[in-house]
Amino acid sequence: MTADHRDPQLPPHYEIRVRGHLGELMLGAFPGLQPERRGEDTLLRGPLPDQTALHGALAQIEALGLELLEVRRTAKFTRKG
Fold it and tell me: Where on the tree of life does the source sit, at the highest rank (predicted)?
């Protein structure tokens, strides 16, 4: 078993990849997540405080008819720039 060295005070960070480029209206459904174009897909990155928030984001993807490609929990979120 491996030790988890994440800070328990910080919310977990996720990367959620969906097919296609999302416009401003659709991106508005994901406050707090930073969009990044990756080829023909969009990567939504950022903190989600708990499982309820994660499931809420996934429900939004389904409600908008987007194709979910990947969900990853990451060690931390860093912005480029």
Answer: Bacteria
Q: What is the pLDDT of residues 13-47, one digit of tens each?
A: 999 999 999 999 999 999 999 999 999 999 999 99
How far is it, in rounded angstroms, from Cα 22 to Cα 77? 21
Contact 61, 18 (CB under 8 A): yes
CB under 8 Å to 75, separation ≥6 — which residues? 6, 13
Name residue, tokens 């401003």. Answer: 24
Position 45, amino acid = R
Domain of 49, in residue numbers: 13-74
How many other CB atoms are there within 10 angstroms of residue 18's CB atom?
21
Quote the CA–CA distance of 26 and 5 in Å, as a whole number: 34
The domain spanning residue 17 has which CATH number?
Answer: 3.30.70.980
